[in-house]
What does this fold into?
Amino acid sequence: MRTATLFVCITAIVHETAAFTHPSLLRHSLLHKAASFNAHSEESSSDPSAFHGISSHELRHMKEAKVRKSESHQTSKSFVSGDDLQSLRREVLSLNQERQKLLTANRDPHRVAELEQAIWQAQQVDAEYVYYISQLRAEKAEEEGDLKRAQQHRKQAKRARSELPQFNLDGLWVGRYGNHGFEMINITYAGDTMIAYKVTDNDNVPSGEVSFTVDLSPNPKTIHGETPLLEPIELNHDAAEQWGLKYLPRFTGRGQVARKGFRNAQWVEGQLILVNKYFSFAWLPIGHQVFFGRPSAELTLKMLRESRSKRFADESSRAFLTRCWEETAYIEDDMDVTDGIFKSHDQSFYYDQAGCFE
Ligand SMILES: *[C@@H]1O[C@H](CO)[C@@H](O)[C@H](O)[C@H]1NC(C)=O
It folds into this structure.
């Protein structure tokens, strides 16, 4: 069995605790962008054709979503996302370091004020920051008995949360659990905790049990421009080209493992990694990682049926599932992002194919 380049790359970095290095290249352009996000309403990066690796279905969906948003005057234009967000946070981090240095040395109060203004401006376009701070403000307003203001902050928090991809993964996903074959999970949220329930059975963890949970509560250290606890994974140049993004955000979680028959069930350290519109979850101590993709309605029905009449024993359904699986870019175990179908010029062709996941 060959192993996917991206998979290897992610697995290697999952364990890495290397010191953070910040790229200062984006220094002014991003803050400028932050400022224009505040002032402007035209968002060039929302042009769907600017993305790579997106299916025609998703493109349609994005266009529809865009129309809906402009109709309702609901601007997702108030927040930056993806790689821009990661760069913005690095920028905030470096500005804050400079600020700390000046404060410690008791120097240049004018520059300190400038830095604080820049940090503030950048934070306003970080949905996670706005989510975090609006909740705090709502609580404070409630304590002070100002329910109207509290409600405004809650509304703002809700809007910011709805823009965060990690909070928009609800529903059914399919992933390959090693030699257990394909399994389906159902993602729900309890507060800021993401919970993945098993929908299909295997010998170890049966359906209805929790496969993994992820803590998505905003991290105050990231928020305040201190060193983030969990650095996003940085893809190498080739992989970044293929996937259309350089940074893969990740979050701390816990995965459930058990012996056959759900005996000795226990929780181990885990990690959720967002990959564009998809994600993977890693059970760290056992080095087990699963990529998840959205199943088609047809596949969903089939898997639900099969989970009821016990696992897919017969070869024809196995073949069907394999075929479906090959149509998600992320899960193929011989996936090689530097070769074959994952070359960018092939990718649009690849994603334009009608398939099980459309
Ligand atoms: C998935 O979870 C949602 C929310 O709890 C629930 O309404 C739905 O029935 C679940 N779907 C399956 C197939 O378990």
Observations:
- Residues 33 and 122 are 9 Å apart (CA to CA).
- The longest helix spans residues 82-105.
- The chain has two domains: 23-40+56-161, 170-344.
